[in-house]
Amino acid sequence: MTAFSPLLTELFDIAAPSTAMDASLRHAIDIKTKPPGSLGALERVAHQIGRIQGSATPDLARPTMLVFAGDHGVVAAGVSPYPQAVTAQMVLNFLRGGAAINVFCRTHGIELEVVNAGVAADFPSHASLVDIPVARGTQNFLEAPAMTREQLETALAAGAARVVAHASRGTRMIGFGEMGIGNTSAAACLMQRLSGLPLAACVGRGTGVDDEGLARKTAILERALAAHPATGDKADPLETLATFGGFEIAMMTGAYLAAAKLGLVIVVDGFISTSALLVAARVSPAVLDYCVFAHASDETGHRAMLDILGATPLLQLGLRLGEGTGAALAMPLIQAAAAFLREMATFEGAGVSDREAAGQ
């Protein structure tokens, strides 16, 4: 793609967190009143958070979940057993507080914001809704690119702006969820084009298609990929996003980049959310250094995508709902990792003998 605006170009330039404190962070973790390594994955996460914040007393204030919603033109081709109207119906469910993501965010004290990135419907004003649709759904990518270059830029900038808004209110940990009938199809095409894996390894049952529906979905996506052949040896990530993505996926991509740019701890959800991260990581690989991967989804392709990104998920619960539910469930564990690094007593401070004092 041709050059982006200076604002977006700056967003793409992300520096990796400094490793200057790595040795002191490792020491701070090891001298807590526990056998070395006994807190397992939480020690890895604590070290990562400490590195991101450059502190042995990290603070994950105001945990926040942004759920981006958008419709997909490819639904008209029959990729989902659910009608497109379900996207809008679920957004209303979010606003009424009745969805799984509402329950999990309430349970764990997580701020929740719903962003209309491009749903084919109108919504009443609501305190939890940011109504900034790029359009009323994307184009059917069987027939044309899902979005124009201008729409892509708008979506990237809008997603970034939502993160900036929450960071200015004190958010230090953020996660992204999504809602959009047809978006597993978009994510599968993004994954295939950016990874080179066979399409069958990327396409799953989404909202629950049967074997016949899965075969039909795969055939449709094969046609779509053939209609937009790759150029060159390496697919351009943003051109691929414009061709196959959704407005909610594009906004998430901008949100990932902005969150890393601002040094936030990012909690990554499932298949669709990770497809947006795959795009962001192709634009700026350092974004991955700010990401904690919440879980391994049961959706086909997610584990392979995690492998591509070199990710180790915290949870394996058989989830495949989306909405950011896996990220919301993982946030308390990530807060616990930061808390033990910040608050747990050391052997010396607690007057407890350690292995070195015992001569072992």
From TrEMBL:
Span of the signal peptide: none
Alphabetized InterPro entries for the sequence: Nict_dMeBzImd_PRibTrfase, Nict_dMeBzImd_PRibTrfase_bact, Nict_dMeBzImd_PRibTrfase_N, Nict_dMeBzImd_PRibTrfase_sf
Active site (catalytic residues): E323 (proton acceptor)
GO biological process: cobalamin biosynthetic process
EC number: 2.4.2.21
Reactions this protein catalyses: 5,6-dimethylbenzimidazole + nicotinate beta-D-ribonucleotide = alpha-ribazole 5'-phosphate + nicotinate + H(+)
GO molecular function: nicotinate-nucleotide-dimethylbenzimidazole phosphoribosyltransferase activity
The keyword rRNA processing is annotated on this UniProt entry: no
Keyword Transmembrane: no
Pathway, per record: Nucleoside biosynthesis; alpha-ribazole biosynthesis; alpha-ribazole from 5,6-dimethylbenzimidazole: step 1/2
Enzyme class: transferase
Entry keywords, A to Z: Cobalamin biosynthesis, Glycosyltransferase, Transferase
Family the UniProt entry places it in: Belongs to the CobT family.
Function comment: Catalyzes the synthesis of alpha-ribazole-5'-phosphate from nicotinate mononucleotide (NAMN) and 5,6-dimethylbenzimidazole (DMB).
HAMAP family: CobT
Entry protein name: Nicotinate-nucleotide--dimethylbenzimidazole phosphoribosyltransferase
Organism of provenance: Pandoraea bronchicola
This protein's encoding gene: cobT_1
